[in-house]
Amino acid sequence: MRCALRVPAAAVAAAATLAGCGIVGGGSPTERSLDQLSVTSPSFRDQTPLPADYSCAGKVGNPPLRWSGVPQKETRSIALVVDANDEQGAAEVHWVLFNIDPLTTELAQNSVPRGAQQGVTSTGRPGYSAPCRRDETYRFSVYALDKKLDPKRGERLRQTLDDIAQHTIARGRLSATHIE
């Protein structure tokens, strides 16, 4: 079982930074209002448990996700952040995936779309870090960005999340209330 580093909320802002729709990271993309994306999964519904297969007890990897409502004219890439906040307000980031082609509308189980990049998580390593804490709420947040990100090799988690926050033009979230 891999244990993730706990990141204090002061170091990585609470997931509600963008008007309650979930991004771990600082800043606001702009003063304009953001479009909403619809995020779903064929494996679980919003506000229901995450199937154990997608947790550290399972062996499947990330769950499949689908999204719609991407503003096609302005969107240059899609990003995904999977995170949770514990009772003490510490954020734990389980996956950062960015530079997904803006025409992509779904993510298959245990996969990374061609051309997409994975950022480091709270573990300090890139890739899907399966959730382990049974009683936390896990958020699968999808962001439409107005540019492709150009991360520097070894870029820190906080910088990647800040870049996502600064370039978000639309967002949506699917939440799992706990692990089955």
UniProtKB/TrEMBL annotation:
<feature type="signal peptide">
    <location>
        <begin position="1"/>
        <end position="19"/>
    </location>
</feature>
<dbReference type="InterPro" id="IPR036610">
    <property type="entry name" value="PEBP-like_sf"/>
</dbReference>
<dbReference type="InterPro" id="IPR005247">
    <property type="entry name" value="YbhB_YbcL/LppC-like"/>
</dbReference>
<dbReference type="InterPro" id="IPR008914">
    <property type="entry name" value="PEBP"/>
</dbReference>
<feature type="compositionally biased region" description="Polar residues">
    <location>
        <begin position="111"/>
        <end position="124"/>
    </location>
</feature>
<keyword id="KW-0732">Signal</keyword>
<feature type="region of interest" description="Disordered">
    <location>
        <begin position="111"/>
        <end position="130"/>
    </location>
</feature>
<protein>
    <recommendedName>
        <fullName>YbhB/YbcL family Raf kinase inhibitor-like protein</fullName>
    </recommendedName>
</protein>
<dbReference type="Pfam" id="PF01161">
    <property type="entry name" value="PBP"/>
</dbReference>
<comment type="similarity">
    <text>Belongs to the UPF0098 family.</text>
</comment>
